[in-house]
Amino acid sequence: xxxxxxxxxxxxxxxxxxxxxxxxxxxxxxxxxxxxxxxxxxxxxxxxxxxxxxxxxxxxxxxxxxxxxxxxxxxxxxxxxxxxxxxxxxxxxxxxxxxxxxxxxxxxxxxxxxxxxxxxxxxxxxxxxxxxxxxxxxxxxxxxxxxxxxxxxxxxxxxxxxxxxxxxxxxxxxxxxxxxxxxxxxxxxxxxxxxxxxxxxxxxxxxxxxxxxxxxxxxxxxxxxxxxxxxxxxxxxxxxxxxxxxxxxxxxxxxxxxxxxxxxxxxxxxxxxxxxxxxxxxxxxxxxxxxxxxxxxxxxxxxxxxxxxxxxxxxxxxxxxxxxxx
Amino acid sequence: xxxxxxxxxxxxxxxxxxxxxxxxxxxxxxxxxxxxxxxxxxxxxxxxxxxxxxxxxxxxxxxxxxxxxxxxxxxxxxxxxxxxxxxxxxxxxxxxxxxxxxxxxxxxxxxxxxxxxxxxxxxxxxxxxxxxxxxxxxxxxxxxxxxxxxxxxxxxxxxxxxxxxxxxxxxxxxxxxxxxxxxxxxxxxxxxxxxxxxxxxxxxxxxxxxxxxxxxxxxxxxxxxxxxxxxxxxxxxxxxxxxxxxxxxxxxxxxxxxxxxxxxxxxxxxxxxxxxxxxxxxxx
Lengths: 326, 284
Fold this sequence. Notes:
By secondary structure, chain A is mainly β. Chain A is 4% helix and 35% strand.
């Protein structure tokens, strides 16, 4: 905490604001704010040369002041930090805040081009990690002059070019750490029906991205699943994920789900992609394989094709056979 | 001459060595001098930066001035480039992964003073250009700061790992073995590589290069009795001529080199004794 003499000096100059932005006629009194600082979080896309922080407004409700700090960084729009003071608060009152609205969620429907199904069983909502986009602290001085400037029930506002904070008071962590890992899977290639046949259908929207997990933090581990080889190199701090048949958990009997509770198609095969699995299609008859199996009619049998009705008629008519007659 | 009792922040420090340490020489052994007030203020926070941050190098070309920040362990911890054509007042510093590492506050006219050194690279020691401690923010390298790919791409913030083309990523919870009193669970990211069975559809559908095959899924049998559908078992359908009610059926179904032969056994019209009996449907 800076020594009080530093705050005393700041009561008579623009700091923590840029010179000329406060203290003039109609401007924020010099002694209202004596120190401030802000930390721009890792998820904000902030450029210290192009963006800044400024005092957007001071609102007075009775004897309570609300100091609203904003930024011209697009990521921080509508994420203003609002500090609260009472007219009678002592000199050099300190307060720190995190930005609001940091709790969010994401769902599968966010990742499809169009969403028409009313059944939202598949549209599972996942919470994103609660992280503050930015935070800051404020130290106020003597608010008497501010009280004279702003009558109760009114708001004093400034544009982004005024009352800007010294750039050196911003700590920019933009893109400087991994806040969380989130998992998702692109959709499978899905089966379609042959010509003149209906396509398989699913009780959820396809073609998008399916969320598997969100907000993974703390100590995380990677595990090699089916056909996956994972190698770790501590010398260069790397993790290599490679496909290798039979590695990891070996070869799968069934494909893994893209998202929890993935459903099979209607009118399709037994695979999640709606395709016919190997054993669902007729591959052999009595052990004879394709691509074409010949059906031969021996004595006593006629085999008649009926392609229009997709039928083969096997007629045991005793053709060429000696039969007894009564 | 009037005396300003409360000079503005930058004006107050103009005649001091700030943001450099009061003990910094601001002069190297080749004669380059950094004038007081050349840089008005600074805020330095390189990730992983150690103690005694200092200006280790200034590289001047016809187009730009590059400032290099070092510390007691590494001479190049971060760099900032001032492009002369941009007429900028400040210099933003970034580390090797392009992450923010700080800012040097100045004015265009003050920074132009460096151009007086001429084109070249000018190095300094920590004793010559160490920054004041109040400018330096410790930023330890705790945790995973970024994910870096082989092509140099750096990912930070909320990172999404997306499986595609037959790669599936899932979250699993692993129960820790009770060893040395350690219990509980941990999150595991499982990576399955299972391929995309229908990949040819995606690759070949353009220009009608791929046509969906018609797969025979089963046989529907229609006869004098009820109609039934026979589905393949492990891909195979078995046609048999057995009849539990007939101890000696005449019908045979057997495989041959040419295909599946369905026939009846017995005397044919050519083998029977006596005059052949004509089959009224088919003649001789």
